[in-house]
Write a structure and sequence with these properties.
There is one protein chain. This protein is an alpha/beta fold. It has two domains: 122 residues, 3-Layer(aba) Sandwich (D-Maltodextrin-Binding Protein, domain 2), CATH 3.40.190.10; 135 residues, D-Maltodextrin-Binding Protein, domain 2 (3-Layer(aba) Sandwich), CATH 3.40.190. It is built from 13 helices and 13 strands. Strands 1, 2, 3, 4, 6, 7, 8, 9, 12 and 13 form a ten-stranded mixed beta sheet that branches. Helix 2 links the parallel strand 1 and strand 2. The termini are far apart.
Length: 310
């Protein structure tokens, strides 16, 4: 009888210990706005800046964010099919995409975090420094008479490809004269090795190249762009993004569809906050709000006291 009671007691104690441990483990792994693990889908066109944001965020909080960089079309597909609840795109969601989340009773939280640009690049030895968007549209539509020999894109499914196709009134790339690879770095490398080609990349890749891509960016140069109805050629600089004069500027958004208070909300607040905006400013892109600077004024008596103490 005593043995049975002892076994029952041990069994109860073992079950209690397991349940308690599971509860503690659940609490330890619970995701909050500054703690836990999550995955973010990122448009590969501005991968470098988001890598920087994640690195600083993780250094400040007990959080681990896995970044998956893909083309825009792949991201949207995964996003709508519950691959993750957070995406970073150069556009907001359209009506059909919003309807998809409405059926799940989720209201997307969309946060604008900055402004990027689509840049045209050419080989450093090229004599050309200017490009007209009308020439790009004509070339994409197979019209002769432009100086363009070939256009090089990162990926047929990228946001950059979508932008230029829409500008040209096309659904897909033309059969001739257009080349595509996988990444922006591939485009920069190809243009740096082939004179006469014009690459189309996210500006962030030029300001923040990878260690292997740095040698390629040094062998290309950006072209100033004239809008279709414009009269001036504008370079893709941070100042021109701020003044909204560059014709191929595009806003960046964090779209959070987690449906709860998680790392998506915390990361969006971080990137749109003071530190995150400083990172964007330093990257060469343009932040939503320019971080302020603290200026300390000292009077003569303060300076005198400091000098006496030295």
């Amino acid at each position: 009888m005593k043995k049975i009671r002892t076994l029952s007691y041990l069994t109860f104690l073992l079950l209690f210990t397991i349940i308690f441990a599971c509860k503690n483990d659940s609490k330890a792994n619970k995701e909050t706005v500054i703690k836990g693990r999550t995955t973010i889908l990122v448009d590969a066109s501005f991968q470098p800046i988001i890598e920087d944001q994640i690195a600083i965020f993780e250094s400040k909080y007990d959080a681990k964010i896995a970044m998956t960089a893909k083309s825009e079309k792949e991201i949207v597909h995964d996003f709508l099919n519950d691959s993750t609840g957070i995406a970073i795109l150069s556009r907001t969601l359209n009506e059909n995409e919003l309807k998809n989340f409405k059926l799940k009773k989720i209201i997307p939280k969309i946060t604008k975090i900055g402004t990027d640009a689509i840049a045209f690049i050419t080989h450093q030895n090229s004599q050309d420094t200017l490009i007209a968007l009308q020439d790009v549209v004509d070339f994409m539509n197979g019209k002769k008479g432009t100086k363009i020999q070939g256009l090089v894109f990162d990926n047929p499914n990228s946001s950059t490809a979508r932008y230029i196709n829409q500008l040209s009134g096309l659904q897909d790339f033309p059969d001739t004269g257009v080349f595509s690879f996988n990444t922006n770095e591939d485009v920069i490398k190809f243009v740096s090795e082939n004179e006469g080609m014009i690459g189309i990349v996210g500006l962030n890749w030029l300001y923040q190249p990878s260690p292997t891509g740095r040698e390629y960016t040094q062998k290309v140069k950006t072209l100033s762009v004239k809008d279709i109805n414009g009269t001036k050629y504008i370079s893709p600089s941070q100042n021109n993004l701020a003044e909204e004069t560059y014709p191929l500027a595009r806003d960046l958004y964090i779209i959070n569809c987690q449906g709860r208070s998680g790392l998506g909300m915390g990361f969006a607040s971080f990137v749109s906050g003071d530190i995150g905006q400083r990172i964007i400013l330093k990257s060469g892109l343009y932040p939503v709000r320019t971080p302020g600077r603290k200026i300390i004024f000292k009077n003569n008596s303060q300076n005198k006291n400091e000098n006496e103490n030295e």
